[in-house]
Amino acid sequence: MKSLAELQAIKDKMKDKVVLREGTGEIRVVVGMATCGIAAGARPVLNAFVEGVNKENLSDKVTVSQTGCIGICQYEPVVEVFEAGKEKVTYVKMNAEKAAQVIESHLKNGNVIEKYTIGANQ
Amino acid sequence: MIRSQVLICGGTGCTSSGSKVLMSAFADEIEKQGLSEEIKIVQTGCFGLCALGPVVIVYPDGTFYSRVEEKDVAEIVEEHLLKGRVVERLVYNDVDDAKKEEIAGSVNVSLNDTKFYKAQQRVALRNCGVIDPENIDEYIAMDGYAALGKVLTEMTPEDVIKCVLDSGLRGRGGGGFPTGKKWSFTAAQPKGQKYVVCNADEGDPGAFMDRSVLEGDPHCVVEAMTICGYATGASEGYIYVRAEYPIAVKRLKIAIEQAKEYGLLGKNIFDSGFDFDLHIRLGAGAFVCGEETALMTSIEGNRGEPRPRPPYPAIKGLFGKPTTENNVETFANIPQIILKGAEWFASMGTEKSKGTKVFALGGKINNTGLVEIPMGTTLREIIYDIGGGIPNGKKFKAAQTGGPSGGCIPASLIDTEIDYDNLTSIGCMMGSGGLIVMDEDTCMVDIAKFFLNFTVDESCGKCSPCRIGTMRMKEILEKITSGQGTLEDIDKLEELAAYIKANSLCGLGQTAPNPVLATLRFFRDEYIAHVVDKKCPAGVCKALLTYKIDPEKCKGCTLCARNCPVGAISGKVKEAHTIDTSKCIKCGVCMDNCKFDAISRS
C-alpha cells in the first residue's frame, strides 16, 4: 500500500459489496460466526445458506458471508438479511431447516418469516 | 462415498449417560445393514444439552435425537439411515420455541428495533457482527485503514498523541489510565527500539469482549497498534492472546497476513518511511499474565511473574525497552477517534470518562450477551432496558463488576451512572467489563468466597501478602460459610484485606481483597447472619441449612427415606418421617423427590 488513492480504490470497489446498492435487488445474508454462534450451531446454518443459495441459483442476487459476534449471544445462531433500501431482518435461533425456509420464502419470494425474527423470540 | 454422518456426543455428560455403548451399537447395526460404506460415525464434543443426553445427530438433515438408548439404535439405523424416515418419537422438540412462534403476531423483525440494541452506541464493536472478519476488503470498505492512512500522510506523531489525549480515552482493561498520556511517556523516551503490546489475555470470569473484538474485527486492532507504533516511535508490536481463544488467534493470524500482503504492515507503509511489524504470542492461561509486567515477562519467554513498578513499561518494558501496552478494547477505539476527531469521542460519556464501554452481561439476566453503551448509563438501564430484567421474576440483588479485582453494586445503588470514578467512589471498579447480575438467590459471602478461591488459585506466588494473605482470607470465609465463624473473624478479614492491598507487588494482589471488602460494605448483615445466627439468608451455604419434614403434610410414602444417600431419614410407612440432622449432608435430594411438598429448607 503506497498511497491513500490505492486504499480508496479498494474501498470503492468493496463498498458496493458490503453496502448494497439500492434498486438492484441485491441481498446480503450474514451469519454470526464467533465462538458463541459456532457453539450454538452456526456452522450448519452457514452451510445450509451457501448450499441452498447455490442450489436455487440465487448466487447472482444473494451473497452469503460470515461475521463476528453482534452481541445477542443468547439468540445465536443469528442470521441477518440486508437488502438495499429496506430495514435489515434479524433471524434468531436458526438451524439448517429454518435456513431452508428462509431461502424459499424470504430470499426467493421476498416474504419475511416473522416467527423466526428477533421480535417474535423476545 | 459417505452420504450421511451420525454424530454421537462423546462429551463427559453424554458419556456418563451411555453414549459409549451407542457408538458400538451403531457400528454393529450399520455393518449389519451393509451401510458401512455410506454412513460415517463421528464422535463429537459436548453440544451443551447434557440434560438431554445421550445426544445423536444425523447429518446432512441435522435430525436431533435426544435421550437415545441402546434399544433405539436398530430402529434409527433401519428407519432413518436405510429408509430415510426420521424416528419422530426420539426427535427433540423445543416446546417453548414452538409456543413463542404461535403467539407471535405483528413483530419487529430487525435487531435494530429491539430495546436491547437501541440503547447501545457501538464504537469498539462497530464492525462486530457486520463485516467478514477474514476479509480485509470488507474492513477497508468500512473505513478500515483510513485512519492509518491519515496518520501517516497528514499527521505528526505529536498530533496523534494530542488527538488521543484530547479524546479523553482511558484504558479499557480496567485501570482507566489516560491512553494519550501513556503514549506520550513512551514517545518521550530517546529514539531506538520500542514496542507496542496489545493485552488480549482476557482472564476475568464472565468477560469476553476482547474475544469478540478479535473474532469480529481483528483488523481494527492491527490498525490501531500500527498507529500507536507511529505515535510512540515503535517499529514492532506483540499481541498477547490467550490460547483458549483459538478462533480469535486464527482470525488475527489471517488479518496480519492480509495486512502484510497489502503493505499495511511491513516496510515503508503508505510511502511514509514508517515500518511496523506484528507478532502473536499465546498465553497459557495464567490470570496473572493479564498484569502488564507479568505479561511482558511471559512474552520474553520467562515464567509469567510481575515485577515491581517503577520503572514503568513506558521507560523499561518489553526486553528492557520502552513499551506501550494497551488492552484490545482501548485499541479498538483508536481508528474511530483519529477519523472522527477527539471532539466527537469526547462528546460521549461523562465529564471524566469519555466514550463508550463494552460490557459482557452474564449471570441472572434475560439477555446475556455483549453490549456497548455510553459512559454514564445507569445500571438500571443496563439491567432492565438492555438486559431485559431478571429471569423468573426474581428480585435484583447486586451486580458484580471487575471480576476478581472488582466489587459489587447493590440494588440500592442501581441508579449509579457507570463510569470509572463513580464506580471507584463506591468501592467498586470498572474492570475489563464483565458484568455479572445476581438475584435474591445469591449468597454474597459465597460470591466473595468464589472470587477469593479464584485469586488463591491464580496467585503467582512471588510475593507473600498475595500468596499467603489471600489463602488466609479464603480460610476465614470457609469458616464463616460453614457456620464456625465469629465476629472477630470479620474484623480479621478487614485487617488482612488492608494489609494485602497495601503490600502486594502487583495489581492481582492489590485488588484481590476487593470482592470481600465490597460485600462487607454493602452486605455486612449477611456476614453477621452467617456468624451470629448461623443462617444463610439466600439458602446457599449448605452447612447452614436445615431440612425439615412437616408432619402435617408427610404421607409416609418413604420416597425420601429411600432416596437419602446417607440414611438420615427414618419413619414407618404411612407415618410422618423425620430427618436426623446430625447425619444429614444437606444434599436436598429428599426435597426434590417429595411429592407432597412436605420438606422445607431454612
Tell me the quaternary state. heterodimer
The count of β-strands of chain A is 4
Largest sheet of chain A: 4 strands, mixed
Mean pLDDT of chain B: 88
Following the backbone from N to C, one meets helices and strands of chain A in this order, namely: HEHHEEEH
> CATH homologous superfamily name of chain A?
Glutaredoxin
CATH superfamily of the largest domain in chain B: NADH-ubiquinone oxidoreductase 51kDa subunit
CATH class of the largest domain in chain B: Alpha Beta
Write down the Rg of chain A: 15 Å
The helical percent of chain B reads: 25-40%
Query: Strand order across the biggest sheet of chain B?
Result: 7-8-6-5-9
Shape assignment of chain B: globular
Query: Average pLDDT value of chain A?
Result: 86
CATH structural architecture of chain A: 3-Layer(aba) Sandwich
